[in-house]
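Folds abound. A case:
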Amino acid sequence: MLAKTVAAICLAVLPSSGLDVTPASVDAFVAEYRESTGLPGVAVVITKGTEVVHAKGYGRTASGDPVTADTPMALASVSKSFTSLAVMQLVEQGEIELDQAVRRYLPEFGMADPRAARITVRQLLHQTSGMADTAFREKSLPQPSTLEGAVKRLRQAELAADPGTVFSYHNTNYQVAARLVEVVSGRPFPAYLQERVFAPLGMRGSRTIDTDRDLPPSARGHLYLLGRPIAMPEPTGFGNGSGGVLSSANDMARWLIAQNGGGLLSARSIAEMRTPSAQNEHYALGWTLGETDRGTPVVRHGGDLFTSTAEQLLMPGSGYGIAVMANTGMAFADSGALTDALVTMVEGGTPRIPASPFLITDVVFALLTLATVALAARGVARSRRWAARRRGWQRLRLLPYLAPLALCAAIAPIFRVLARGGDIMWIQVAYLYPSFVIWLLATATACTALLLARLLAAAPEMGVRSAPVGG
């Protein structure tokens, strides 16, 4: 498999003109994209071989500062490539073997499920350890504050499958891998990345953080509502190892160039990182494998937070590298859309700006919200009339007014079912579907108010009396 993957990904030389990729053409397209979508801020970098074609920031951060090529922005799950590289460095030093059990190097790694003793280092990086959101709700459980805490909270967790049998994208895999780097190297994970990755590459503005509270103002992002970006804090979450790296366009240029053989790893280790598992032919060690619309092999990885996104992509055949960091959340996929557009430019095509359904959806839910509130207000005003016309069992018609409140309480579990077990917190659902959640909350409030008003209006006829003042 290794030889086949290297041949397809590392040695392929396919036509890729890149004639339309100039700083001016990129600037023009990003300006058009921002004008069309309302994207508040984005950083873009394009490299070819050892050269930087373009690195620039556009627009503004959530705090109102200009986005420049040196503005630190959140990489989210693009960080997994950094964690994987750190592990592979220790493999090259003979400190770790990919196919040895994690517990050999990290004795503190323990789970309630005895099968966890068989999890290997490679399985963590391949996301085939058997850990999954369905068995361990890593987002909705209380969040750790350190990598040590992230491993410690697994002690009561179960596995969803036997190790090495099923692919399941699960952030905890990479948090355990980052803790492994800490213990084996004897350095805190941020210090390790600084000393062994960022400093050697000259990535002076890059670092890794633990939680949402550590995000600097430049790395905070936005939601769209009625077509307008609204700055919002990132929901509570832990991400070191799996999604904690902050970087800039200039720094990511150095990172992309290093992927072509920049000295941090041997060619054999780079090929290993781009070799997928038998359980998922598209996911390797912190990278995903795929093709462009024209069939060009690419190596990439995306990253999603609820208020920002990032994307990195390599075209090994032509030597191009692309990275995009946008300060809008995962529901809007701006980084991925811009990356795909830039790939089209590299391949000599004409990129298109994808149409967004969110403005129409937001308008529909805004109108529904106004209509719901107006109807509820009308119903409250006519509560006495309603009570006078209905008797006994007819008042059971009030029960459906509890449905929106029940839906509010059940929305996170419902989402988990729709997402096939993917974990989420209630507030995170609101970040994904803000206009829908606003309508739902308004409807629940309006229906509850109407229910109470009608019950109070019917109370005298039902024999319910208020208690006299003073007892």
The longest strand covers residues 51-59.
